[in-house]
């Protein structure tokens, strides 16, 4: 569990890719079936306000450039009971479901 938390702590951090110099904020951390741990780095907007394209990087390539996250990280230690009661999650549960 310690290693999982270490990688999730990249969320919201400003980083730089050691190979390409690409910079941005980690928006997603992904764990795949083959053991790769990758992060989506969001570079923000350009001078005209147009959003630039995010890129995936192996987490080992990323260097944290600022020790303060850009926003509070979500709490991922949810119990099945909390989830079932709609206490956590991305949005409110619908009042009804159309079949």
Give the structure's gist in a few sentences.
With 99 residues, this protein is of the alpha+beta class. The chain has a single domain (2-72), classed as SH3 type barrels, CATH 2.30.30.
The fraction of residues in strands falls at 25-35%
**What is the helix tally?**
2
Query: What is the overall pLDDT average?
Result: 85
Which regions have little confidence, pLDDT < 50, spanning 5+ residues?
A: none
**Basic shape:** globular
User: In angstroms, what separates the terminal alpha carbons?
Assistant: 39 Å
Structural domain count: 1
Secondary structure: number of strands: 5
CATH architecture: Roll
- Helix/strand/pairing class, anyone? alpha+beta
CATH class: Mainly Beta
Determine the CATH topology.
SH3 type barrels
Write the H/E string, N to C: HEEEEEH
Largest sheet: 5 strands, antiparallel
C-alpha Rg (nearest Å): 17 Å
The main sheet orders its strands as: 4-3-2-1-5
- Helicity range: 10-25%
